[in-house]
Known about the structure:
Layout: H1 3-7, E1 14-20, H2 24-36, E2 40-43, H3 52-55, H4 76-81, H5 91-104, E3 111-112, E4 117-123, E5 128-133, E6 138-146, E7 168-171, E8 186-190, H6 194-206, E9 209-214, E10 221-222, H7 230-249, H8 268-281, H9 285-288, H10 298-315, H11 319-325, E11 339-340, H12 343-346, E12 352-356, E13 362-366, E14 369-372, E15 376-378, E16 381-384, H13 393-396, E17 400-401, H14 408-411, E18 430-432, H15 445-466, E19 471-473, H16 475-490, H17 520-532, E20 538-540
Parallel strand pairs: 1-2, 1-6, 2-3, 4-17, 6-18, 7-16, 8-9, 8-16, 9-12, 10-11
Antiparallel strand pairs: 4-5, 5-6, 13-14, 14-15, 19-20
Amino acid sequence: MSASQKMNSSRSNEVDAVVIGAGFAGLYMVHRLKELGLSHRAFEQGGGVGGTWYWNRYPGASSDSESWVYSYTFSPELEQDWQWSCRFPEQAEILRYLEHVADRFDLKRSFDFNTRVTSASYDEASGFWTVETDGGERVRTKYLITAVGCLSAAQVPKIPGLERFQGKWYHTGQWPHEKVDFSGKRVGVVGTGSSGIQSIPIIAKQAKHLTVFQRTPNFSVPARNAPIGPEQMRKLKRDIRQIRETCRWATIGQPYDLLPTTALEVDPEERRKHYEADWQKGGFEWMFGSYCDLLFNEKANETAAEFVREKIRGTVKDPEVARKLIPRGYPIGTKRLPLDTDYFETFNRENVELVDLRESSIEEIVPSGIRTRDKTYPLDAIVFATGFDALTGPLTRIGIRGRGGQRLDEKWSTGPRTYLGVSTLGFPNMFMITGPGSPSVLGNMPTSIEQHVDWISDCIAHLRNKGATTIEPTKDAEDAWGAHVKELGDGTLFPQTDSWYMGANIPGKPRVFLPYIGGFGTYRKLCDEIAAKGYEGFSIT
Length: 541
Ligand code: NAP
C-alpha cells in the first residue's frame, strides 16, 4: 500500500463528487464543493497542487496574463493579502500562490496526490460513476468533475531514434523538479510556440551553444515584464474589483477589449502609431485591445502582421536569419500569440543557430544529436517545446465511459461534441471545467475557470434542491451548440492555419476549431440565461 493510500484509507469510497486535477480549476472546485457541504474526493497525478504550474517548470516559464488578473477573484481578502512581485509572474511564484490558496482554504486534505485516474465509468442502473485510480482504489460518485486543464497532455513527436539519444531530453510540459543546468552544454530546442519562445532566450544565456529547430516561424509580441512598484500596487489594490468586473464581461476575459474601430477604416499612419504605442506597452493588449477586425479580415490582419515583420527585420542583424524568422502564409493571432522577452534579439548571439526545418526537415535522432536532411547537429541535450494534445487530449486519455459503456474518445472521434463545453450527451452528471466548446483558452484562464466552477456549483445546488438525480444535455441542444461553435469559428481566420486550436498539431486528430469564440462576456451571459431558464437544453430527471 502506498503512503498516499495509507493516509487516505479512512476516506469514503462513495461520495457526492469526484474532482480530477489540482490546478486552478480543481482547487477552486473543491473549495466550492466544501462550501456546498458535498462529500467529495479529488485526485491529482502530480505530487502537489499547481496543474500547469506544477508541470511546466522550464526556464522562462511565466504567465502571459498580468498577475493582477491571472489569479482568483472569489476571495477579496485573498486578493488584498497576496502581493505579486511583477506584471508577468514566473512559474515558481504562481506555484507559491496556488500553494498558499490550497493552505489558506484547507484544500489539500481533499486530494490524493501522485494518483492518476485510470478510468471513470457510468452505471445507468445506480446512476453512479465508478472512478478507478492507479493506486487500486474504486470510488463511487454521483458527479464527475474534470479539472484536467486544456494544455496538459504533453506531445513528444515520434521522431525515429529518440531512444538511442545519448544526451538528456526534456519536454517543456514535463520538466524535472530539480534544476537543469545547461552550462557548457550544446542544447537543441525543437519548437517555437509560446514554450519555446519563453525558454530560448534563457537557455541561450546558459548553454555553450543553442540550436533552435524551427518548423513554422512565429509572430511574437514583447511582454515588457516589470516589477510592480509601491504606487502601482496601491492603485491595483484600490481598483482591483473594478478591473475584475471588466474582465468578467470582456471578449477575452482581460481588463481591456477590442476597439470599436476596424483596422481598415483608420489612416495607415495613425494605425502604425497605434500599433507602435501598444508595442511599447507590451502584452496581449497589442492584439486583443486593438482593432476589432484583426482576426476576421485578412487585409486588416495583414496590417498587424506586417508591423511585426518590420520589427523582426529591425531587430535581427543577419538578414538571412531574419528572413527565416519572419512568419508568412498564415494570419497573425491564429496560432496562439506568444509574448516574449528578447526572443528575436537572442538570434543576434554568437552561440545561437537557427535551423529552418522547412528547408531541411528532421530525419532522425542519432546518439550524438539531431540529423536533418542536410546535416547532423551534435547535442548534449534536446528540449522538446512541441506542445500538447489540446483541449480534448486531457479528457480522452482518462478512459471515460458513459451511458451504455460508450467511450468518450469514440464519441469524439470526429471532433468533440458538447453543450456549452461543460457537458456532453451520454455522460450524465459529468461536468468538464473549460472543456472544448467553451471559451477556455481564448480567455484569461482563471477567469474562464471561475466562471465554469461557479456555474457548475450553482447547477449542482439546483439539482440538490430539486431532488434531481441526473442532468445531461439534450441532443438538440448539443447539436445546436456544436453548429454555433463551428459557425463562429468559420467566421474567423483561424481555420486557415494549422494550429492546436484546430487540432492540426496532432497527427490524425480531426480538424475542428475547438474553443468557443463568441466572446467570454457573451458566453457568461448565455450560461447565466440558460441557468435562469431552469437549465434550458438539459434534461434533468
Ligand atoms: P505549441 O504552441 O503547440 O508549439 C509547438 C511548437 O513545436 C511549434 O513551433 C511546432 O511547429 C513545433 N513542433 C511540433 N511538432 C514538431 C515536430 N515534429 N518537428 C518540429 N517542430 C515541431 O506548444 P507550446 O509552445 O508548448 O504552447 C502551447 C500552448 O500552451 C500555448 O499556445 C499557450 O496557450 C500555452 N502556453 C502558455 C504559456 C503562458 O501563458 N505563459 C506559456 C507556454 C505555453 P508548427 O508550428 O510547425 O506546428
